[in-house]
Amino acid sequence: MESLLHSTLNTRQLVPGSFRYLRSDVPDRITEEEKRFLLEHDVRLVIDLRADRERRERPCPLEDDIRFDYRSMPVTTGDIVPHCFEDVPAAYLDMVDGQMERIVRTVEESPCGVLYFCNAGKDRTGVVSALLLRRMGAPRETITEDYVRSAALLKDMLRDFVSKRPELKLEVVTPRAQTMEVFLDRVVFPGQNE
Fold first, then answer.
1. Is residue 192 part of a domain?
2. Are 43 and 112 contacting, i.e. CB atoms less than 8 angstroms apart?
3. Domain range spanning residue 30?
4. Residue 191 maps to a domain
């Protein structure tokens, strides 16, 4: 499986065959041809899940393109990297708050296709994707498989990322099925009846 956009590593359809929800890493090198591709598939709402500092460091060109409805909706505590593998599900649970509810509702209520992303498209984007799939009634296996797909698409990028940050471990930043399973066991979405 490859990224849907050539300029990104991890852009893909949340539901195969549908352009309703596209999850991605930051499209900071998106081409005009790729923009046209998104518009042809009615993907016009763009939700940036990154903190303001991250947006300044890696600006997204879609922010200034009037053909797209670009919205900055930072995920709470989303820019904090856990120190050990066991802390990753807890970090994901910390993201599920009122802001996350607003993000998911905005995505679900959009009249057009939505491209949502963070830096790598695996953690914050993975949590949003898991919650969307769960609310659609997708089985746990589907949610977990979608999450783990990022590991293969980002393998080289994650190795490079960790090599430049000796305080991080590859096992912490690599999506694993166990992480999503623990998250799904514990998450209670605001307003959820479970």
1. no
2. yes
3. 12-184
4. no
**Is 21 part of a structural domain of the chain?**
yes
Residue entry with tokens 């589907």: 142
Q: What is the pLDDT along the chain (194 residues), one digit of tens a residue?
A: 799 999 999 999 999 999 999 999 999 999 999 999 999 999 999 999 999 999 999 999 999 999 999 999 999 988 788 888 899 999 999 999 999 999 999 999 999 999 999 999 999 999 999 999 999 999 999 999 999 999 999 999 999 988 998 888 888 899 999 999 999 999 986 555 44
Identify the three-state secondary structure at position 160: helix
In the chain, the number of structural domains is 1
For every residue of 30-41, DSSP letters joined together read --HHHHHHHHHT
Structure tokens at 113: 């296709």
Residue 59 sits in a domain whose CATH number is 3.90.190.10
